[in-house]
Amino acid sequence: MLITDLVLHPIAISDPPLRSSYGRHAPFALRTIVELKTDSGLTGISETYGGDGPLAGLEAVRHRVTGMDPFQLARLYRDLTAEAAHEMDSAPGGRTQTYLVPGENPLDRHARTFAAIEIACLDLIGRAVGKPVCDVIGGRVRDEVSFSAYLFYKHGVPAGDEYGEVLDARSCVRECKQMIAKYGFREIKLKGGVLEPDIEIATIRALREEFGRSYPLRIDPNCAWSVETSVRVGRELQEELSDGGYLEDPCATLEGMAEVRHRLLTENNHMPQASNVAVTCFADVPKAKSLDAVQIVLSDPHYWGGMRNVQQLSHLTGVLGMGLSMHSNSHLGVSLMAMTHAAAACPNLTYACDTHYPWQTAEDEVAAGGRIAFVNGSVRIPDKPGLGVDLDYDQLARGRERYSKIPYRKRDDEAEMRKHVDPDWRRVLPRW
Amino acid sequence: MLITDLVLHPIAISDPPLRSSYGRHAPFALRTIVELKTDSGLTGISETYGGDGPLAGLEAVRHRVTGMDPFQLARLYRDLTAEAAHEMDSAPGGRTQTYLVPGENPLDRHARTFAAIEIACLDLIGRAVGKPVCDVIGGRVRDEVSFSAYLFYKHGVPAGDEYGEVLDARSCVRECKQMIAKYGFREIKLKGGVLEPDIEIATIRALREEFGRSYPLRIDPNCAWSVETSVRVGRELQEELSDGGYLEDPCATLEGMAEVRHRLLTENNHMPQASNVAVTCFADVPKAKSLDAVQIVLSDPHYWGGMRNVQQLSHLTGVLGMGLSMHSNSHLGVSLMAMTHAAAACPNLTYACDTHYPWQTAEDEVAAGGRIAFVNGSVRIPDKPGLGVDLDYDQLARGRERYSKIPYRKRDDEAEMRKHVDPDWRRVLPRW
């Protein structure tokens, strides 16, 4: 079985105006659906970041992927990594995610490109051997994967928005109740760094009051806070975030997070910190550990270099005594299944995974048969080969058409803020 | 494809009287050939340690393996590891390899048992999908794997021994020339800790003189030396062991090796240290790194828990900036192929691997078609599914018969020393 063609489908999917410290989501998120055709007649699929950058990254490996044996992935990863290391050595200031939305960091482009190829190859292998992908990569340790209710502040929502405006504690509790009623999630994550810290503190407290201690809570302001503010929030929310929850990327850099950690520890506050901004590649992990800046790493098959790399991260964090969860971006069902298979094959996975899936709708889903089902907040590994999902080509065509009609080719949450909220808005760190 | 039967073949293979700090090899080494039969008609094979202990470990998982899907390995490893962790917690003195020959440490029994099952499952999967095992586990990064000339002091050799007695520098050079002429090895390893350190130093110097700087040299006294002696040898052999070579387990414990390292560094001697005695499980690796006791970890699919664990070790050592090579025990061709596939799939592999294979003979080989070929010191990944090796059942029957006729069921190198060399011999650490 050799790969004969790489087919890229750039698509756009409707997205609500979700707020974060990066700005505001545009009305459409960009994704790419990847197909790998083979001489066996089988096709493997994956889903990744969208727009010009990710497409160019994939186009650049077309000549390597065409003719490739989908089983022989390690050499492609080694070669792309070596080339990227060379580029990174010459990058001013080195690698940092602090100022970049996921999917737009040029320094992990190779890992994102490889991941899209790897996941489609693993789907191919699974289809060829009649096994789910989680078993192709060593075997599942769980049959279903738990996800968390991922809450966002939102404003300026279009008419008919399912969850409405969310700009305070009360409306956020409503959003959470709706989402839990629909999906059955058992852990809750709030995207913070958007409103005054006191409003966000009040929101977390209202969520705890409504849902009780059996629903672990986490908040992620994406580095919007100073060390001082991070310590204050950590102090005020010690009880709420310590019961199986965490504080995620409160401020910028590992050094900043280490200072927050050490100051909270002197107050006997052991609230763990998670990161997918200060820790975005394997080299960051031992440093995060030695500084004790981060106790939980957020994996993601899309930008950590694929599903086997997520397993490697599970192993590495396990050896170093760290926790593991999973980051998410706006995505459809193909990505959801890749995340689910990867998570199912990770022995060290200590928290429910993030997912933006509730923010997308059936109108945009490209998975044949429609939206992936959640039961009690979890996605079950389907009893099907590969990722367990096929493409609905009519839906894919609609996604391509939407893509062709929108003017932007890059995620730019700041531009959305300037357009809809404040013509002078820019991302300032720390904001509070 | 489900496993229907686990068949264990205990065999004995002729072994020369190889010396090490553990004592002397007995006339026969014990191995176990594992067969996993399936309802698909395919059989997967592996080779592991022999004798009562390893057999009992495998018998203990028979009920779990029977009926198992060979793709679903991770749960078996997780369960065996969890049970072993429980045992280790209650083991007096904790886990150490210092006083145990590989294969006889009760605290990594679970990893050895799992490895024998995993390798046979990967062979099965490879046969089922028509791919070499190195590609089943993610893809090779090299098509052939380099091994080193593994030299031993020997005495009391039987008549007709191919390499004869080796008890000084001159005879060791002769042994090395013979072995390199036959196999083409390009790196040289001397098992030390046997004779007075000055004789071993002279041996290394004679090897350097004979083969030159293009043949990297390493010496492994298996903890026979004190810190003081280790520093002295490190000082005297600085030049010889630094050109792509290393000093392996000169003394006992990570703390001892850290002291050797730090003392040599103060003399601007950067000779790296390798270990498969002070570092035998994943938890040892970060400790070895933080103490700077060990710069090169010696993997081994047999006791590190299988081929995917060797890949994890390659990744972990790569992330921590450490080197990787591979340890060996007396073995036949099935083990050699497992070692070769594992090594081929490790991006971070910085030295030629060890192998005892030259010490075994065609008379004992159970691989169909006879001995595995070396070209220029390397074994090539065969263009065949699975491990690429089948069993010769006649040869296997001969191995079983030899096993049935010998009285011992456990490797005991001290007993051999008492029998043949000195009735009062026992392993004393440090000896010098």
For this structure, the CATH topology of the largest domain in chain A is TIM Barrel
User: Roughly how many Å is the radius of gyration of chain A?
Assistant: 20 Å
Largest sheet of chain A: 7 strands, parallel
Query: What's the order of the H and E elements of chain A?
Result: EEEEEHHHHHEEHEHEHHEHEHEHEHEHH
**Architecture of the largest domain in chain A in CATH?**
Alpha-Beta Barrel
N/C terminus separation of chain A: 55 Å
Give the helix tally of chain A: 15
Mean pLDDT of chain A: 96
Output the CATH homologous superfamily of the largest domain in chain A: Enolase-like C-terminal domain
Number-wise, the strands of chain A total 14
Beta-strand share of residues of chain A: 15-25%
In the CATH scheme, the class of the largest domain in chain A would be: Alpha Beta
In which order are the strands of the major sheet of chain A placed? 7-8-9-10-11-12-13
List unreliable stretches of 5+ residues of chain A: none
Total count of domains of chain A: 2
* Category from helices, strands and their pairing of chain A: alpha/beta
